[in-house]
Specification:
- It is built from 13 helices and ten strands.
- By secondary structure, it is of the alpha+beta class.
- It folds into two domains: 182 residues, no CATH class; 200 residues, no CATH class.
- It has a six-stranded mixed beta barrel with strand order 2-3-8-5-7-6.
- Strand 2 and strand 3 form a beta hairpin.
- The longest helix is centred in the C-terminal third of the chain and has 44 residues.
- The chain is elongated and about 105 Å long.
- It starts with a helix and ends with a helix.
């Protein structure tokens, strides 16, 4: 039998039993819809992770005050940088030692921070992270400056009370007014706004990097926070391929400087872009796996429904099968027709499920802001899975129909 004729027979068979066809499609539609949403959301989340890692800087690593047992977390606080338990062991001298002794370090940017500081101007106030930094901060973070000036060496040496503020801080404190040259209060200490930072975006932890106030490191330590220790040190490596080696060298250097015995827990923590990516993707992967299992169960249930309805269809169409066999149809023609019916109905269900999945993605993005990334791989997966379910579910009914003896089928 020609393929065109076989396809026509299959389509007529599906059209004669539209309600049955719809029920067979329904289970597949649900499974493919869930699968499309899961894959699109998963790929979108991964792309967002990679964007944030690129913002973090692929050639940079971070040294945080506080060891692994101090519950270092990604994105704590408005600033979106890893939160650290208060420790006093990371010093400016440690940063200088890294700059002097780690050959793989191109540049370093020590900083001290407080995530819940209050910045105010006139009758407006805004709770924001305040960072005490050195001039190297801008270069190491590749942080744009919109106008004015950033922190200078002279500012640190003279403990100047100048500040560079992010766009979010500008919006919250000044609205449409020009902040340049204005005096703001940071935890009660006056600072002159000397610079406006450019837009940096979202951090690896999801925080607003534009909601920050930068002041000279020494000024922050002496006049704002009254501390003699750092929150962290950002290190830019010379060669990306040496990232892990540089991290190991810094680890050894700081352990020696802090007099830590072999096996004793470190009082600092080193974070690399690879570690951040692995950490977030592991959490995302676990969630995606759960949803894919749910989608798989829906597809299996849909396949069972298709198989059972096809078996009922074979029993009800015995005379049709017998008549076709009597006029010359071969077993492979009967088998091919029923396989095409099952595959066709699941493929249609899959296409409908992809359409519903796209709508679901748009609704999800609109309601929650969750990113989605619909690619050809997602569409191909929907088509492939729905076709595979149709073939598997229709195989046994098709074989049973092909195995009927023409005489017995006509007598039933």
């Amino acid at each position: 039998m020609k393929k065109e004729h076989m396809i026509g027979q299959a389509l007529r068979g599906l059209n004669r039993n539209r309600l049955r066809t719809f029920f067979m499609m329904a289970g597949i539609m649900v499974g493919i819809t869930v699968l499309t949403v899961v894959l699109s959301a998963g790929m979108g989340a991964r792309e967002r992770i990679m964007e944030r890692v690129r913002v973090f800087g692929l050639e940079n690593l971070m040294v945080w005050a506080g060891g692994p047992t101090d519950q270092v977390r990604l994105g704590q606080g408005t600033g979106g940088t890893p939160g650290v338990q208060v420790t006093t062991t990371l010093k400016i001298e440690d940063a200088q030692a890294i700059a002097d002794e780690i050959r793989g370090a191109r540049a370093i940017a020590p900083f001290a921070r407080r995530g819940d500081s209050e910045a105010s101007w006139r009758d407006r106030s805004y709770t924001t992270p305040v960072f005490g930094v050195t001039p190297e901060w801008r270069d190491v973070w590749d942080w744009p400056l919109d106008r004015g000036s950033f922190i200078t060496d002279h500012d640190n040496q003279s403990m100047s009370r100048v500040a560079a503020i992010g766009p979010t801080v500008v919006r919250e404190l000044f609205g449409s007014e020009d902040p340049m040259g204005q005096m703001i209060q940071v935890n009660g200490v006056p600072f002159e706004v000397a610079g406006i930072m450019g837009v940096k975006g979202t951090s690896a932890g999801g925080g607003d990097m534009d909601a920050r106030v930068f002041v000279p490191l020494v000024t922050y330590m002496r006049r704002v926070a009254n501390v003699d220790y750092l929150s962290g040190i950002r290190v830019q490596v010379r060669d990306l391929r040496d990232m892990e080696a540089v991290a190991a060298d810094i680890n050894a250097l700081l352990r020696e400087r802090h007099n830590l015995a072999p096996g004793e827990p470190a009082d600092f923590r080193i974070t690399t872009p690879t570690e951040i990516t692995a950490m977030v993707e592991e959490m995302q992967g676990t969630f995606n796996l759960f949803l894919i299992v749910v989608a798989g169960i829906a597809l299996v249930v849909g396949g069972v429904v298709v198989a059972n309805i096809m078996l009922v269809s074979v029993s009800e169409r015995r005379k049709e099968i017998g008549l076709r066999r009597a006029v010359g149809a071969k077993p492979r023609d009967i088998r091919g027709q029923f396989l095409m019916e099952s595959t066709g109905v699941t493929l249609l269900g899959g296409i409908a499920g992809i359409g519903l999945g796209i709508v679901g993605n748009l609704v999800t993005k609109w309601l929650t802001g969750t990113p989605v990334l619909l690619t050809w791989q997602v569409l191909a997966a929907g088509v492939l899975f729905s076709t595979a379910v149709g073939v598997v579910a229709g195989l046994h009914p098709a074989r049973r129909a092909a195995a009927m003896a023409p005489v017995d089928a006509l007598r039933s």
